[in-house]
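Reviewer 2 asked us to include a model.

Predict the structure of this chain.
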Amino acid sequence: QLHLVESGGGLARPGESLRLSCAASGGNLAFYYIGWFRQAPGKEREGVACISSADGSTSYSDSVKGRFTVSRDYAKSMVNLQMNSLKPEDTAVYYCAAVGSWTVTTTQALCTNADFDIWGQGTQVTVSS
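Predicted model (structure tokens):
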């Protein structure tokens, strides 16, 4: 069973950058679709950046498009989320999620909660001046 652990969260000022990492163990990351999600207090968890294992395609929410970049490092079995130009509204707990490619019927990136069945414990990101 794939196990995910997020790291890299913390406090940032508006306009600064943070890099989140999701370390995978117990499976080959190359066979999993990966998604980054976030949940702010009082809000539903939303997908922000997702990547397909089939064709490498990515999907971003409108709120982070152009500022966040998701990438995979197969050698290190990690998926990273580079977050630039951070805003206070980016404050949330960020989760890494995965789903086996053998269960997926599309080559395109998936980015909704229901698509994923393996979740990390989350890492807090706070953007404040």
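The chain is about 0% helix and 45% strand. The CA atoms of residues 6 and 22 lie 4 Å apart. We have added this to the supplementary material.
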